[in-house]
Amino acid sequence: MLALIITFLTLLGATPQDPSAKPLNVVATTGMIADTAREVGGPRTHVTALMGEGVDPHLYKASPGDLRRLQEADLILFNGLHLEGRLADMLIRLARRQPTVQVTETIPENLLREPPELEGHYDPHVWFDPTLWVFVAERTRDALIERDPAGKDEFTANCARVVARLKTLDAWARAELSRIPEQSRMIVTAHDAFGYFGRAYGLEVIGLQGISTDSEVSIQSINRLVDTLVSRRCRAVFVESSVPRKAVEALIEGCKSRGHTLTIGGELFSDAMGPDGTPEGTYEGMVRHNVRTIVEALAPAASAPMHTPPSSTTPEPAPR
Q1: Overall number of domains in the chain
Q2: Are 204 and 304 within one domain?
Q3: Same-domain pairing of 277 and 156
Q4: pTM for the full predicted model
Q5: Residue-wise pLDDT tens digits, 26-69
Q6: What is the distance, to the nearest Å, from the Cα of residue 75 to the centroid of all Cα atoms in its chain?
C-alpha cells in the first residue's frame, strides 16, 4: 500500500532535473541501496545513506538532520516491504512534493518470500539474493533517468556493469557455499534476515527473532532452539552486526548446560553493511564477507581454500 501511495504522489512531483545542474542529490535509506545508487549513478549523482554501520532499519527513527537531508533530496530511494516501518509516514509526506521511489517495487511478487508469521506481508531482506538485487539496480537506473534524462546512456552502461557483477557474485557464492556438507547446512542467527539467502543457496535458516527485530525473544523460543541445536549437533551460531548478541549468548549457555559445545561462527552483516572505506562497506563486499564467514564456520577444516575469481574482485568503495 505504501508503494502505491508513493508512486501516485510521485507523479505529482517536480519535472526532471536540468542536465546542466549540479549532480543529483540522492538520499537512500539503507547503505545497500546507497552503494548501488552510487555505482549506477556515477559522477552525475551525490548519494547519502541515512542508516550507516550497525544501524537496525526496523527500529530506526529519523533525526532532525535526516529530515533536512530528505527534504533537500532530488530523489529519495527506499527499500519498502515494511523494512523502514517507522519511516513510512514520513516517506508518504515527502512523496507529495519529492520523487520517492521504492527500489524493490519491480521484483515479481512470485519471487518474494511470504513467511506465515508476516501474515500476508513480504520479507523485506531481498538484498541477500544477488539475483533479486538485479531488479533493484535496474529500478535505481530508471529512477535516475527519470530525474536526469541526459544521463540515460551513462546510467544504463553503469547499471549493466553492476548487473554483470551481481551475476558473477551469485555464481561465486553458490560455488563456495556448496562446499558445506549436507548435515551442516544450517545457519542460526539473531533474527530471521537470511531467508532469501537460504532459499537461494540451499541452506536452512533459523532466526531467534522474527523478520523484524521489534519482536521479543522468549525463554521458550530459546529452549526450543537449544533442543534443536543439541539434537542436530550444530557447530556454530552467528551474531549480526546490527543486532545485540544477548540472545545468541543465551543459546550458547543453554547448549553448554546440555553438554554440547556451540561456538560463535563469526559476525554477519544483515540489515547494515560494514564501515565506510572497507570492502564490507560495499554491497558486494558485505555479501562476500558473509559467505566466507559461513563457509569457514560450517565447512570442514580440510576443505580446499576459497578463491575469488579475478574478474569479480570487489572494487574500491566509491567516495562518500
Answers
A1: 2
A2: yes
A3: no
A4: 0.84
A5: 999 999 999 999 999 999 999 999 998 877 788 788 888 999 99
A6: 20
